[in-house]
Target: Exodeoxyribonuclease III Xth
Amino acid sequence: MKIATFNINGVNKRLDHLLIWLAAAGPDVVCLQELKATDGQFPEAAIEAAGYGAVWLGQTAWNGVAILARGCEPVLTRTGLPGDPSDTQSRYIEAAVNGILIASLYAPNGNPQPGPKFDYKLAWHQRLNLHAAALLEARVPVLLAGDYNVVPEPRDIYPTRSYDGNALVQPESRAAFKSLVEQGWLDALRKVHPQAQLFTFWDYRRNRWQRDAGLRLDHILLSGKLKRRLTGAGIDREIRGLEGASDHAPVWITLRE
Model:
Protein backbone atom coordinates (compact mmCIF):
# COMPACT_ATOMS: atom_id res chain seq x y z
CA MET A 1 0.00 0.00 0.00
CA LYS A 2 1.44 3.35 -1.06
CA ILE A 3 0.39 6.50 0.78
CA ALA A 4 1.56 9.99 -0.15
CA THR A 5 1.24 13.59 0.93
CA PHE A 6 1.49 16.52 -1.45
CA ASN A 7 1.12 20.24 -0.81
CA ILE A 8 -0.27 21.00 -4.26
CA ASN A 9 -0.31 24.81 -3.78
CA GLY A 10 -3.49 25.29 -5.82
CA VAL A 11 -5.30 22.13 -6.89
CA ASN A 12 -6.90 23.67 -9.98
CA LYS A 13 -3.85 25.66 -11.05
CA ARG A 14 -1.70 22.52 -10.85
CA LEU A 15 -4.29 19.89 -11.71
CA ASP A 16 -2.30 18.72 -14.75
CA HIS A 17 0.75 18.15 -12.55
CA LEU A 18 -1.35 16.23 -10.04
CA LEU A 19 -2.87 13.98 -12.72
CA ILE A 20 0.53 13.30 -14.31
CA TRP A 21 1.98 12.35 -10.94
CA LEU A 22 -1.01 10.15 -9.98
CA ALA A 23 -0.67 8.22 -13.23
CA ALA A 24 3.10 7.82 -12.89
CA ALA A 25 3.40 7.14 -9.16
CA GLY A 26 0.16 5.21 -8.60
CA PRO A 27 -0.36 5.99 -4.91
CA ASP A 28 -3.25 4.22 -3.18
CA VAL A 29 -3.96 7.16 -0.88
CA VAL A 30 -3.01 10.82 -1.28
CA CYS A 31 -3.25 13.61 1.27
CA LEU A 32 -3.40 17.03 -0.38
CA GLN A 33 -2.86 20.45 1.19
CA GLU A 34 -3.24 24.06 0.10
CA LEU A 35 -6.12 23.37 -2.26
CA LYS A 36 -6.79 27.11 -2.54
CA ALA A 37 -10.31 26.26 -3.69
CA THR A 38 -13.78 26.26 -2.20
CA ASP A 39 -15.67 23.00 -1.79
CA GLY A 40 -17.51 23.69 -5.03
CA GLN A 41 -14.31 24.41 -6.93
CA PHE A 42 -12.64 21.10 -6.08
CA PRO A 43 -12.00 19.17 -9.35
CA GLU A 44 -14.01 16.13 -8.32
CA ALA A 45 -14.75 14.96 -11.88
CA ALA A 46 -11.10 14.99 -12.95
CA ILE A 47 -10.02 13.18 -9.79
CA GLU A 48 -12.75 10.59 -10.29
CA ALA A 49 -11.73 10.10 -13.92
CA ALA A 50 -8.20 9.39 -12.68
CA GLY A 51 -9.61 6.55 -10.58
CA TYR A 52 -9.81 8.17 -7.17
CA GLY A 53 -12.58 8.85 -4.70
CA ALA A 54 -12.10 11.92 -2.53
CA VAL A 55 -13.18 13.87 0.50
CA TRP A 56 -12.14 17.47 0.94
CA LEU A 57 -12.47 20.63 2.99
CA GLY A 58 -12.01 23.75 0.91
CA GLN A 59 -11.59 27.45 1.54
CA THR A 60 -11.54 30.52 -0.64
CA ALA A 61 -8.08 31.56 -1.88
CA TRP A 62 -6.00 29.65 0.69
CA ASN A 63 -5.76 26.55 2.91
CA GLY A 64 -7.85 23.50 2.05
CA VAL A 65 -7.12 19.80 2.55
CA ALA A 66 -8.23 16.58 0.88
CA ILE A 67 -7.81 12.81 0.95
CA LEU A 68 -7.88 10.75 -2.24
CA ALA A 69 -8.25 6.95 -2.38
CA ARG A 70 -7.67 4.87 -5.47
CA GLY A 71 -10.66 2.74 -6.43
CA CYS A 72 -12.75 3.55 -3.40
CA GLU A 73 -14.42 6.33 -1.45
CA PRO A 74 -12.71 7.54 1.75
CA VAL A 75 -15.07 7.42 4.72
CA LEU A 76 -15.03 10.91 6.22
CA THR A 77 -14.63 10.90 10.02
CA ARG A 78 -13.64 14.47 10.93
CA THR A 79 -13.20 17.96 9.49
CA GLY A 80 -11.19 20.32 11.66
CA LEU A 81 -9.23 19.85 14.86
CA PRO A 82 -11.15 19.83 18.14
CA GLY A 83 -10.43 22.39 20.83
CA ASP A 84 -11.31 25.72 19.21
CA PRO A 85 -14.82 26.07 17.74
CA SER A 86 -13.97 29.61 16.57
CA ASP A 87 -11.23 28.37 14.21
CA THR A 88 -12.63 28.52 10.66
CA GLN A 89 -9.42 27.75 8.77
CA SER A 90 -9.59 24.57 6.65
CA ARG A 91 -6.47 22.77 7.81
CA TYR A 92 -7.43 19.26 8.92
CA ILE A 93 -9.46 16.36 7.57
CA GLU A 94 -9.70 12.69 8.58
CA ALA A 95 -11.03 9.66 6.76
CA ALA A 96 -10.89 5.88 6.97
CA VAL A 97 -9.35 4.11 3.98
CA ASN A 98 -8.80 0.34 3.82
CA GLY A 99 -8.68 -0.07 7.58
CA ILE A 100 -6.40 2.91 8.28
CA LEU A 101 -7.46 6.24 9.76
CA ILE A 102 -5.79 8.86 7.55
CA ALA A 103 -5.37 12.53 8.45
CA SER A 104 -4.35 15.22 5.97
CA LEU A 105 -3.13 18.35 7.71
CA TYR A 106 -1.84 21.77 6.76
CA ALA A 107 -0.33 23.43 9.81
CA PRO A 108 -0.09 27.24 10.06
CA ASN A 109 3.04 28.90 8.73
CA GLY A 110 3.29 31.26 11.71
CA ASN A 111 5.12 34.17 10.09
CA PRO A 112 5.87 36.83 10.99
CA GLN A 113 7.02 35.92 14.46
CA PRO A 114 6.63 36.92 17.16
CA GLY A 115 3.02 37.94 16.79
CA PRO A 116 -0.56 36.64 16.51
CA LYS A 117 0.18 34.35 13.56
CA PHE A 118 2.94 32.62 15.50
CA ASP A 119 0.69 32.36 18.56
CA TYR A 120 -1.97 30.73 16.38
CA LYS A 121 0.61 28.32 14.97
CA LEU A 122 1.68 27.14 18.43
CA ALA A 123 -1.92 26.88 19.65
CA TRP A 124 -2.86 24.86 16.56
CA HIS A 125 0.05 22.46 17.12
CA GLN A 126 -1.01 22.08 20.74
CA ARG A 127 -4.51 21.10 19.59
CA LEU A 128 -2.99 18.69 17.07
CA ASN A 129 -0.87 17.06 19.77
CA LEU A 130 -3.87 16.63 22.06
CA HIS A 131 -5.96 15.09 19.31
CA ALA A 132 -3.07 12.87 18.19
CA ALA A 133 -2.70 11.55 21.74
CA ALA A 134 -6.38 10.65 21.76
CA LEU A 135 -5.97 8.81 18.45
CA LEU A 136 -3.11 6.78 19.89
CA GLU A 137 -5.22 5.87 22.89
CA ALA A 138 -7.84 4.43 20.55
CA ARG A 139 -5.24 1.83 19.45
CA VAL A 140 -6.27 1.82 15.80
CA PRO A 141 -3.94 2.17 12.79
CA VAL A 142 -3.47 5.92 12.23
CA LEU A 143 -1.39 7.98 9.81
CA LEU A 144 -0.88 11.74 10.12
CA ALA A 145 0.36 13.22 6.85
CA GLY A 146 0.84 16.71 5.54
CA ASP A 147 2.67 19.99 5.60
CA TYR A 148 3.52 20.54 9.27
CA ASN A 149 5.34 23.81 8.52
CA VAL A 150 8.11 22.74 10.90
CA VAL A 151 11.74 21.99 10.06
CA PRO A 152 12.39 19.35 12.75
CA GLU A 153 16.19 19.56 12.91
CA PRO A 154 19.05 21.71 11.56
CA ARG A 155 19.92 18.96 9.03
CA ASP A 156 16.41 19.38 7.53
CA ILE A 157 17.33 22.75 6.02
CA TYR A 158 20.11 23.80 3.66
CA PRO A 159 23.07 25.67 5.22
CA THR A 160 21.83 29.23 5.69
CA ARG A 161 21.23 32.00 8.22
CA SER A 162 18.40 33.50 6.19
CA TYR A 163 15.76 31.48 8.05
CA ASP A 164 17.01 32.22 11.56
CA GLY A 165 14.00 34.43 12.35
CA ASN A 166 11.49 32.25 10.49
CA ALA A 167 8.66 30.56 12.38
CA LEU A 168 9.47 27.24 10.68
CA VAL A 169 12.71 26.77 12.62
CA GLN A 170 11.96 28.40 15.98
CA PRO A 171 12.66 26.34 19.11
CA GLU A 172 8.97 26.45 20.04
CA SER A 173 7.96 25.04 16.64
CA ARG A 174 10.53 22.28 16.80
CA ALA A 175 9.55 21.46 20.38
CA ALA A 176 5.91 21.07 19.33
CA PHE A 177 6.84 18.60 16.58
CA LYS A 178 9.23 16.72 18.85
CA SER A 179 6.56 16.46 21.53
CA LEU A 180 4.16 15.00 18.97
CA VAL A 181 6.64 12.36 17.76
CA GLU A 182 7.55 11.44 21.32
CA GLN A 183 3.96 10.44 22.01
CA GLY A 184 4.85 7.30 20.07
CA TRP A 185 4.59 8.32 16.41
CA LEU A 186 7.17 7.25 13.83
CA ASP A 187 8.61 9.83 11.42
CA ALA A 188 8.50 7.44 8.46
CA LEU A 189 10.74 9.32 6.05
CA ARG A 190 13.47 9.79 8.65
CA LYS A 191 13.18 6.15 9.74
CA VAL A 192 13.87 4.90 6.21
CA HIS A 193 16.58 7.51 5.55
CA PRO A 194 18.20 8.06 8.97
CA GLN A 195 21.33 9.86 7.76
CA ALA A 196 20.28 11.58 4.54
CA GLN A 197 19.65 15.28 4.09
CA LEU A 198 16.02 15.37 2.97
CA PHE A 199 14.14 18.30 1.44
CA THR A 200 10.46 18.48 0.47
CA PHE A 201 10.06 22.24 -0.11
CA TRP A 202 12.03 24.76 -2.15
CA ASP A 203 10.95 28.40 -2.06
CA TYR A 204 10.33 30.07 -5.42
CA ARG A 205 12.62 32.96 -4.56
CA ARG A 206 16.40 33.24 -4.99
CA ASN A 207 16.72 30.19 -7.25
CA ARG A 208 16.35 27.87 -4.30
CA TRP A 209 15.17 24.93 -6.41
CA GLN A 210 18.05 25.33 -8.83
CA ARG A 211 20.48 25.53 -5.89
CA ASP A 212 18.79 22.67 -4.00
CA ALA A 213 18.29 25.07 -1.11
CA GLY A 214 15.42 23.19 0.47
CA LEU A 215 13.64 22.42 3.71
CA ARG A 216 11.87 19.33 5.05
CA LEU A 217 8.35 20.47 5.95
CA ASP A 218 6.20 17.54 4.81
CA HIS A 219 6.01 14.58 7.15
CA ILE A 220 4.18 11.26 7.47
CA LEU A 221 3.79 9.98 11.02
CA LEU A 222 2.71 6.42 11.81
CA SER A 223 1.03 5.04 14.91
CA GLY A 224 2.30 1.91 16.60
CA LYS A 225 0.13 -0.49 14.61
CA LEU A 226 1.60 0.82 11.35
CA LYS A 227 5.26 1.09 12.31
CA ARG A 228 6.05 -2.57 11.69
CA ARG A 229 4.33 -2.42 8.29
CA LEU A 230 6.65 0.29 6.91
CA THR A 231 8.71 -0.97 3.97
CA GLY A 232 9.84 2.17 2.14
CA ALA A 233 9.66 5.95 1.84
CA GLY A 234 10.80 8.62 -0.55
CA ILE A 235 10.35 12.04 -2.15
CA ASP A 236 9.28 12.50 -5.78
CA ARG A 237 11.58 15.45 -6.34
CA GLU A 238 11.15 15.52 -10.11
CA ILE A 239 7.63 16.94 -9.74
CA ARG A 240 9.12 20.10 -8.21
CA GLY A 241 11.13 20.59 -11.38
CA LEU A 242 8.12 20.86 -13.71
CA GLU A 243 7.33 24.26 -15.17
CA GLY A 244 4.91 26.10 -12.89
CA ALA A 245 5.22 23.43 -10.20
CA SER A 246 4.17 23.59 -6.59
CA ASP A 247 6.98 24.63 -4.26
CA HIS A 248 6.59 21.25 -2.53
CA ALA A 249 7.32 17.72 -3.78
CA PRO A 250 5.22 14.65 -2.96
CA VAL A 251 6.39 12.49 -0.06
CA TRP A 252 5.37 8.81 0.00
CA ILE A 253 5.64 5.66 2.05
CA THR A 254 4.85 2.00 1.40
CA LEU A 255 3.23 -0.36 3.89
CA ARG A 256 2.88 -4.11 3.92
CA GLU A 257 -0.73 -5.21 3.57
